[in-house]
Amino acid sequence: MDTMDCKQAGDLLSEYQDGTLDPAAAAALDAHLRGCGECTGSVGSLLAVRELLRGLPPDPAPPELLARVLAAVEAEDRDAGADSAPGGGDASRPFLARFRIPLEAAAVVLLFASVYWYQRTPTPPARPPSAPTAQAPETTPPVAISPDASSSAAKVSPTGIRLPRGNPKKPREEAPAAAKPRTWAAEDLPSLPAIRASTDSERIVPIAPFHGPSADPGGRGTPAFEVRQSAETEGGADFRLSRSFAAPSSRLLRPLRYGRDIAVDVAPESREGAEERVAEATLRSDGIVERIERDSETGREGASGTIRVVLPEAAAAGFLDELRRIGTVPQENLQSAIDIPAGPRPGTIAYAVRIRVR
Amino acid sequence: MEKPGGKGRPVDLLVEGFRKGAPGAFEAIVRAHQDRIYSFCARMLSDREDALDAAQEVFLSAWRHLSEFRGEAALSTWLLRIAANRCLNRIRRRKSLAEREAPWPEPSGEMMEEGFVFQPAGGEADRPDRLAEACEMGEILTEALSRLDPGSRWMVLLSDVEGFSYEEIATLADVPVGTVKSRLHRARMAMRRLLSPVA
Question: Residue A33 is part of which domain span?
Fold first, then answer.
């Protein structure tokens, strides 16, 4: 008995011709087909189409296909070398070549781990902020590097200055400053650009002797210089003082990345201590001394020293007046130095004051 | 015609020879299968150059991965699977074909009920009976196949031309067997209508 209509039958014709209908559905469709000429015709045409498709001969491949395939294989084989010989797989590859990528990955991981370990090297404990200052030792080393500043490759001070990394295993001897020097608040201090990061110096601020007898308890007439601490070890803007030293005379003068060169000519007899006088003038102008370079033969004609200082822009004129009291400043230098302020941050001006013996 | 999944074919010896590094083994494999693979690609892509590129990719991929071929299916089946994937990827990427097929929404609603899954002929000259007068049967079939939507075309090619089973196609397409059946049914009905003047 026919139990399905043509719509139902039509939905089953494709599977019917494939022979994949379950027996019950196939029997029902057979029953329908016996009484439906249209659906029977559909089955016939479907079978005819399939026979046509089954008999569709393959198109012959263009002759260039084989040539192109073989050329591509040869090129890839050449690129890959012997490691990727056809059918070879890993078995034919050199042992280390199998681990090429993992080795490279391991190298990268090792590199990162090294950097991480380096950065995490524990820092020596910071000195308490209230550590009393004491007299400088008899033999003042040329450079003092605070151990507090040694914990990182380039710490950033509250002023934005990137301080150099010291040797954490060899904290150097410290000489507490004789008296607390004048300091800027953090926001007033000039920040140095990253390009100023160096590995050999700290920021040095002269301690003026006019602060009182305690400024130079050693009585040698040589002002001490404090070593600025980094922001991390100082806990913010409050700079603590450390032992102060002058920069070694052997230190090479590096080109100033910013600021103006200015010369101060001094007589041979007043050459001694000229750098210190410039440093004191800097302090009186609310500035800081970044570095002092000394010529070893300070008494000879033409001998020079250089003091790098940074000042508030407004204090530039007063500072230049101070320089004129120390020596002779060429007028052209003065004008350009005032007109073109160029400090490490807006509102500051930096000078490389060169002491010349004339 | 080689039945998919068959065993003991001479081409298996070529695969073994390739694995052992026998000179000329891979070239012999290409020669044995290039017509079939190229035909499949040409019917799928309806473009000779595209088919040539796709067939080249198929054999190059086979060369790279033949060492991983375990022989669960015939080599021709394996190659056709690669070819189907390559052609479908090309169809997806090919903007010109996409534009050509743009009037072809996924069959639904009335179109589904009418079995209207093939691209309608553009004009009188495109009618199958007119084509039959001008072309050989193979060309008519190829033309009719090209008017199926790509998602159904490759199933018809694999099922009715290459002899793949529903299950094999479902595995290859990553769709349920029921989906393969319904798509094949619609495509076959469309082919029947398109070829009715000659079939």
Answer: 6-47
Q: Kindly list the residues from chain B whose CB atom is less than 8 angstroms away from the CB atom of residue A15.
A: 181, 185
Q: Is B37 on the interface with A (CB under 8 A)?
A: yes
Please report residues of B whose CB lies closer than 8 A to that of A45: 192, 195-196, 199
- Does the structure show a pLDDT above 60 at A264? yes
Hey, CA dihedral for B9, B10, B14, B17, is it positive or negative? positive
- CATH assignment of B104-195, among 1.10.10.350, 1.20.1250.20, 1.10.10.10, 3.30.2020.30: 1.10.10.10
Does A271 share its domain with A314?
yes
Pairs across A and B, CB distance < 8 A: 115
Specify if A292 maps to a domain: yes
Helix, strand, coil percent content, chain B, rounded in steps of 5 = 70, 0, 30
**Structural contact between residues A235 and A216, judged by C-beta atoms closer than 8 angstroms:** no
- Chosen for mutation from B34, B64, B139 (greatest number of chain A CBs closer than 10 Å) is B34
Residue B32 near chain A (CB below 8 Å): no
Give residue A342's identity as a one-letter amino acid code.
A
Q: In chain A, whose CA is at the least distance from the CA of B30?
A: A66
> Looking at A220, A246, A272, which one is the last position of a domain?
A246
**pLDDT per position as a tens digit, A176-234:** 444 444 445 545 544 444 333 333 333 444 333 333 334 344 434 433 333 343 333 33
Q: Please identify every stretch of chain B with a pLDDT value under 70, giving residue numbers as ranges.
A: 1-12, 94-136, 197-199
Domain count, chain A: 3
Give the Å distances, CA to CA, from A325 to A265, A291, A298, A342, B17.
11, 21, 19, 23, 98
* Of the partner residues B38, B181, B199, the one whose CB lies closest to the CB of residue A48: B199
Q: Which of A20, A65, A85 sits opposite B34 (nearest CB)?
A: A65
For domain B10-95, say whether CATH 3.40.50.1970 is its number: no
Q: Is B21 on the interface with A (CB under 8 A)?
A: yes
Closest chain A CA to residue B196: A45
Number of other residues whose CB lies within 10 A of the CB of residue B160: 23
Say if A61 falls within a structural domain.
no
pLDDT at residue A90 tops 90: no
* pTM check: above 0.90: no
Residue A109 belongs to some domain of the structure: no
